[in-house]
Amino acid sequence: MNDGAPIEISFSHRQSAHCETGVLSNLISHHGLKISEAMVFGIGAGLFFGYFPFVRLNNLPLTAYRIATGGIMRRATKRLGVRLQWEKFKNPVKAMDALDRKLEAGIPVGCRTGAYWLSYFPRRYRFHFNMHNVVAIGKNNGSYRISDPVLPEPVDCPAEDLVKARFAKGIMAPKGRMYHVAEMPQSADFEKGVRKGIKEVCRSMLSVPAPFIGTKGIRYLAKKIERWPRKLDDRSAALHLGQIIRMQEEIGTGGAGFRFIYAAFLQEAAPILNRPELIDLSAQMTEIGDRWRDFAVIGARICKKRASEMESYAALSDILRSCADLEELLFRKLDGLVRR
Amino acid sequence: MKKEDVPQDPGFSNGIPEISYAVDERGRYSLVSSRGWEPKTVANEQAWEVIDEKTREQIRLVEAGKRSPLAYHMTRNLMDVGLLASYAGLSRWRVRRHLKPKAFNKLPAEIKARYAEIFGISMASLHEVPKATDSNPNE
User: Fold this and answer.
1) I want to staple A260 with a disulfide (CB 3.0 to 4.6 A). Which of A162, A178, B21, B70 is the partner?
2) d(CA A229, CA A206)
3) Is the same domain home to A304 and A179?
């Protein structure tokens, strides 16, 4: 980590809702193919629902609104014909040297990091989450210039923090992983990518043979929530509920558990597939997102013990069931539309 | 969500303005900055209450002489024995022993330095814990 002349790559930083899609859309755009975050999310088939009571996060069940981290990047790059060159390291010094070489060559570098060690986040945002993506775009005076897509502007990150973050330990340890765009397509086939992305989301939302995934999974959660007041004490039920709201609305979803980003994607997809019906489906997705937001509003009131009599766990189940019904209908239409 | 409905509630301290996706009056999507949303803040604060309570519990145990300061620093850094062990490059069994005051006090400086480095604090601070009566042990 010797300190050479300051480097600052001219990189257009666009704040995004989500780190993985934000980094990829910024990187691909930097290499000449202008693409929005929503488009990356859609082609990468990011939308999902899963309720996994047997997977515990802080001793509470895991709820997922997007596919496993890393999956969006893998699918979107493949479908667009972009090749990312990945490297991983055992030795932190070598990892930082390799990063410096790339920056010196004027190449912006994506890094997998543990968010806990990134001191530019306020303390209350920092958890041991090891799949946070950022782009290194420069270096000056022992500190790196970082384009973190969830922040409004690029920030400076002390080298010692970045080392720690790149070598965070625990589940899905990043092991210094970094990547850069190695090859760009002559011309990207958006139509095919969009079609494949939509098909895949329809499949995971409609026909995965597991009760806790897709629209079935939403109904499964509805059934569980109904029972919480009987099965759990007040405090524990509130914690279970709070965890769902956090997964749905936490930094990086763009609102309503990625439903709004997906609606934005459908809107953008309409002219690409030349299917004006997609505009209507986008509006329907927005309405579904609004239902998910209602769920969070009422849920938070219950957590705070500020709920009225009508705002019960049973009422939350009803909202979820209507989300499940509406999403099922929507994905069936969408599936029919891309197959024709 | 409509653009004008994007919530701008004060979030918790030093909140980051985040991106929300919302539609304009013609139904077109755009990215809107949001300063925070009350339901989200409620859920996040609830999660932190649990962490704060755990941290306070560790401080009480340290004060009672039942746990070493390492137990406090581990909890404050949202770690469990497994995670701390992998950072320190030690076995879980040894880390668990170091959570006891007796074993902790006998630790060689080299191991203590390793722990201090992980938490990003000085060797002196590694021996310190705040008062249990502090309202917010995690600030």
Assistant:
1) B21
2) 29
3) no
**What percent of chain A shows pLDDT beyond 70?**
99
In CATH, what number is assigned to the domain containing residue B58?
A: 1.10.260
Q: What is the mean pLDDT of residues A315-322?
A: 98
Instruction: Give the pLDDT of residue B80.
Output: 95
Q: What does the alpha-carbon distance between residue B98 and residue A247 come to, in Å, rounded to a whole number?
A: 34
A67 located within any domain: no
Chain-chain contact of B39 with A263 (C-beta, under 8 angstroms): no
% helix / strand / coil in chain B, to the nearest 5?
50, 10, 35
Q: For residue A248, what is the nearest residue in chain B, using CA coordinates?
A: B40
Q: How many other C-beta atoms can be found within 10 angstroms of the C-beta atom of residue A93? A: 10
DSSP code, position A121: S
Residues A107, A223: one domain?
A: no
Query: pLDDT value at position A339?
Result: 87
- Tally of structural domains, chain B: 1
Q: Domain range for residue B122?
A: 40-126
pLDDT, tens only, A206-231: 999 999 999 999 999 999 999 999 99
Residue range(s) defining the domain that contains residue A334: 190-339
Report the SS3 class of residue A277: helix
Residue type at A235 in one-letter notation: R
Whether residue A50 is contained in a domain is answered as no
pLDDT at B101: 97
Q: Check CB contact under 8 Å for B39 and A245.
A: yes
The answer to whether residue A331 scores a pLDDT higher than 70 is yes
pLDDT at position B135 over 90: no
Most confident of A135-139, A185-189, B6-10: A135-139
CA distance A311 to A108: 49
Report ipTM for this prediction.
0.93
- The answer to whether A284 and A326 are in contact (CB under 8 A) is yes
Count of domains forming chain A: 2
A148 vs A115: CA distance, rounded Å: 11
- Shared domain check, A25 and A170: yes
| CB-based contact A38 B21, cutoff 8 Å | yes
Looking at the structure, tell me whether residues A27 and A175 fall in a common domain.
yes
Q: Provide the shortest C-alpha distance from residue A82 to chain B (in Å).
A: 25
Q: What residues form DSSP beta bridges with A112?
A: A133
In a domain, A52, yes or no: no
